[in-house]
Amino acid sequence: MTADARIAAITERIVERSRPTREPYLDQVRRMAAAGPHRASLSCGNLAHGFAACPAGDKEALSDGHTPNIGIITAYNDMLSAHQPFETFPALIREAARAAGGTAQVAGGVPAMCDGVTQGQPGMELSLFSRDVIAMAAGIGLSHNMFDAAVYLGVCDKIVPGLAIAALTFGHIPAVFIPAGPMPSGLPNDEKARVRQLYAEGKVGRDALLEAESKSYHSPGTCTFYGTANSNQMLMEIMGLHMPGASFVNPNTPLRDALTKEATERALAITALGNAFTPAGEMIDERSIVNGVVGLHATGGSTNHTLHLVAMARAAGIQLTWQDISELSDVVPLLARVYPNGLADVNHFHAAGGLGYLIGQLLKKGLLHDDVRTVYGEGMANYASEAVLGPEGGVARTPAPDVSHDPKILATVDEPFQPTGGLKMLTGNLGKAVIKVSAVKSQHHVIEAPAKVFHDQAELQDAFKAGELDEDFVAVIRFQGPKANGMPELHKLTPVLGILQDRGHKIAMVTDGRMSGASGKVPAALHLTPEAVDGGPIARVREGDMVRVDAVNGSLEVLVETSAFMARIPEQADLSANHTGIGRELFASLRAVAGPADQGASVLY
């Protein structure tokens, strides 16, 4: 099916813009694919080191150079609930590989930190940079050049984007992403949010808050709200890097294990040693990236992906911009209501029809490129399906339902929840920013109010506790960009700003930092660039300046006469306290070279 003409035009624009970088990238991918892994040409000493720990059968297979070998890159640790299930995956993958006539080795582990643990803490200032560290760590694992394909075990916020950057950097070999799945549903997300808000108001104590949080995050698996982690899973599936239907199957179930075995078998089948060679760098093209953006809009996904998708695309020589993302938002309808832009969690979303149903709806109107390559084969139509456990214990697939099992969670493409997607770009005399409006009520889409200026989120929280914020205002929180302090999420502000909005005040936020993938009902202009530490216009804003955040017309303005505003000397901030402790001193070089937010806030590109 041909894509919608508007989507086709945006895609073609990306293709043309990307030619100077995409063509050299593809040349390199093809040269490296032609050279193949060096396993067969390694010296005996090199090869002996490479398989010294393997059992005899694997050593024999690796010696001949003709048996496909999978490199496993794992983000396993048992502190992240989403990643704890990966502990058993390497053994399962090795067993499945041997049964299919191949071998598999853990090529390397990558760091994986939990934003849920570090929110509001010093460690959050390492979070965004961990994405690029993960990409580099995966590169070290794969640098042994003994692998015909790679499988990537990761779920959460920065881990999957980092792994995707690595997979595209090693784009000459196939890449299959294997998820672990969401934890079963716990305390409803709206009830969790209610208790958080009560705690912020001082109406319940820490015991009540901890009890609510523990009932929400209660077992192995991904957190069940639709934040960055679950947006990652959607992206990997709609971009064709997962097996169809793999994203939202719970951990430690027979179907989850069957999908992992199937992914292993498929990774072996698409190496250069077979007849279906699918190198990741050629498979993921401009159409795949556009499909990812379409999925983000259709599901109301995480604002963090305005950073991550740009960085991932650049790893494949593709030049995606915020303007592209914003224009696609004008075309793509919102089809899903999952918390924070609804009451359902991802388990409810999956039960209502999930990604198979959503992909089918988007294909019906030509809103996805169907003519793409995926790890499963040609075409996105394969992904308009539901994975179930077959009679022999393997994976079987049935067509996705034509009708939503719950219209409050999944709408039809003909009658969407709203006609446009959830993310927009804002531009104006404050620079460029992004805003997520899928969870923001229409009466809050335009906010004009005096600025209250803060240099960190603790200052705002202190002002709230002191009763200084019971009025209309735009919270301007600056010196939160990648060069300033690593661009931490400011999720701790969500309950406070929500309380003030509920009291009837006009509230918005403008920041050169990030919010959470779960940012919700308060309009927030995020990722503002240029950032304050680079002398961006946000550093010229003064207390009481009128600021207008307009998500309808896509504008972000400080309402100060231009010459007077530009004559102001940009404010400075003492950031020394943000540069030491909890490992932050190790990241000084990354802060120094970090790129702007609209280019992915990357230290790599």
UniProtKB/TrEMBL annotation:
Segments forming domain Dihydroxy-acid/6-phosphogluconate dehydratase C-terminal: 408-601
List of residues binding [4Fe-4S] cluster: 156, 223
Enzyme class: lyase
Pathway in which the depicted protein is active: Carbohydrate metabolism; Entner-Doudoroff pathway
Binding note for cofactor: Binds 1 [4Fe-4S] cluster.
Cofactor: [4Fe-4S] cluster
EC number: 4.2.1.12
Location of the Dihydroxy-acid/6-phosphogluconate dehydratase N-terminal domain: 68-381
One Pfam family of this chain: ILV_EDD_C
Alphabetic keyword roster: 4Fe-4S, Carbohydrate metabolism, Gluconate utilization, Iron, Iron-sulfur, Lyase, Metal-binding
Entry superkingdom: Bacteria
Gene Ontology annotations for the cellular component aspect, listed alphabetically: cytosol
UniProt record, GO biological process: D-gluconate metabolic process; Entner-Doudoroff pathway through 6-phosphogluconate
MF (Gene Ontology): 4 iron, 4 sulfur cluster binding; metal ion binding; phosphogluconate dehydratase activity
Record InterPro entries: 6-phosphgluc_deHydtase, Dihydro-acid_dehy_C, DiOHA_6PGluconate_deHydtase_CS, ILV_EDD_C, ILV_EDD_N, IlvD/EDD_N
Catalytic activity: 6-phospho-D-gluconate = 2-dehydro-3-deoxy-6-phospho-D-gluconate + H2O
UniProt xrefs under PROSITE patterns: ILVD_EDD_1, ILVD_EDD_2
Family: Belongs to the IlvD/Edd family.
Role played: Catalyzes the dehydration of 6-phospho-D-gluconate to 2-dehydro-3-deoxy-6-phospho-D-gluconate.
Protein's name according to its UniProt entry: Phosphogluconate dehydratase
Organism of provenance: Pararhizobium mangrovi
